[in-house]
Amino acid sequence: MASWTKIERPIEGGTIVLMQAPMIISASRSTDIPAFYADWFFHRLQKGYSAWTNPFNGVKSYVSYDQTRFIVFWSKNPRPLLPYLHILRERNIKCYIQYTLNDYEREKLEKVPSLSNRIDTFKLLVEQLGKGAVIWRFDPMILTDDISVEDLLVKVQSIGDQLKDYTEKLVFSYADIAMYKKVKHNLEVNGIPYHEWDTEQMDEFADKLSTMNRKRGWNFQLATCGEKIDMSKYDILHNRCIDGDLITRLAWDDKELMDFMKVHIEEVPAPTLFGKPELPQGAILLPHNHYFISTHKKDPGQRQFCECMASKDIGEYNTCPHLCEYCYANTTKQIALENWKRHQDNKFADTITGK
Q1: What span, in angstroms and rounded, lies between the C-alpha atoms of 250 and 253?
Q2: Could you give the 3-state DSSP secondary structure of residue 172?
Q3: Which residues contact 72 (CB under 8 A, 6 or more apart)?
Q4: Four-CA torsion 298, 303, 308, 312, nearest 10 degrees
Q5: N or C, where is the chain less crowded by C-beta within 10 Å?
Q6: CA nearest 76: which of 41, 109, 40?
Q7: Based on C-alpha coordinates, what's the Rg of the chain?
Q8: Using CA atoms, how far apart are residues 78 and 99, in angstroms rounded to an integer?
């Protein structure tokens, strides 16, 4: 599924170029497109393509939206998407949102709108997209001199109580700082007294989170993102952020997309005199008496413990003005702000950076 169709089409100015034409777009692991670049993205969607620069070799490549059927948005402030969602409906493009809704207000680790504003945004999105299409992420779970395991649990409880009945899932990760040089550098440069998680703390947090989820009646599916540690004894799964099964649940009636994903939609047989028919093992129910069997396949190009399926990410690193102190996507705040200014000077260029 990673082998996208390639097509030739003109760019502005008339030059014909070869473009990838993915069906599934990720927007984006590399930057917060909904918060800062929603205008740009929907302009590019209308134009039919955008461009991005490979961070490893500096080569500019093009992405066509001619065949796009599904978008996974990632954001800490997706409110700017709200006026544009009708465009996706008109184009028969489905989506869901990985919504990172943390509470580091007191510690000032993120430059985001108030927590109350972000919770309100979450509920507004659910009203438009449905409960299953807005996923709550508290990511990363970070320990510092000022944030303990208990502090994190209090923060999660407060948000969880407000999101009860508004989402199906809570995804989290433990801040693994030593593994990510950018994160380590940014925390140290910004004077954040971070602590690494040890296995005992991870187990304590998972156990108490699972108990909280059950006792407070949230009934969220709990899942970790990119974590090696097995939390299944606490009913915590390894997450699929680009999730073939969720895409199928939300877009099962899109035959073109289902054919591409090799998903077969079946009708539930009618009851007989002998009762309800048994469905195959692993069957996932859909509306209107349909079901499917998962064909989710991990993208081999992702990290070892990432369970995402293949998608085409259209973002670029060093472009996110949230300026989170623990950022993994910006090398420095200065570079991110320079690129943000360049974008504002050329808001509808084919690349995010305006280059």
Answers
A1: 8
A2: strand
A3: 24, 25, 26, 27, 95, 96, 97, 98, 241, 242, 311
A4: -100
A5: C
A6: 109
A7: 21
A8: 7
Beta strands, E only, 57-197: 60-64, 70-75, 94-100, 134-141, 143-144, 169-174, 194-195
Could you give the 3-state DSSP secondary structure of residue 329? coil
User: Tokens 């090696």 correspond to what residue?
Assistant: 228
pTM, rounded to two decimals:
0.95
- Domain extent, residue 200, equals 5-243+296-345
Q: How many domains does the chain have?
A: 1
Q: Which residues pair with 144 in a beta bridge?
A: 194
In a domain, 274, yes or no: no
Per DSSP, the residues of 102-141 read ---TTTT------HHHHHHHHHHHHHHH-GGGEEEEEEEE
Token digits of residue 215: 């006792």
Q: Considering the domain boundaries, does residue 253 fall inside one?
A: no
Tens of each residue's pLDDT in the chain, 355 residues:
456 899 999 999 999 999 999 999 999 999 999 999 999 999 999 999 999 988 788 889 999 999 999 999 999 999 999 999 999 999 999 999 999 999 999 999 999 999 999 999 999 999 999 999 999 999 999 999 999 999 999 999 999 999 999 999 999 999 988 888 888 888 998 899 999 999 999 999 999 999 999 999 999 999 999 888 999 999 999 999 999 999 999 999 999 999 999 999 999 988 766 777 788 998 999 999 999 999 888 877 777 778 889 999 999 999 999 999 998 899 999 999 999 999 999 999 999 998 8
**Residues whose CB is less than 8 angstroms from the CB of residue 226 and which lie 6 or more positions away in sequence, other chains included:** 173, 303, 305, 306
Within 10 angstroms of residue 204's Cβ, the number of other Cβ atoms is 14
* 167 within a domain of the structure (yes/no): yes
Which residues sit opposite 134 in a β-bridge?
A: 97
Angle at 84 between CA 100 and CA 103, to 5 degrees: 15
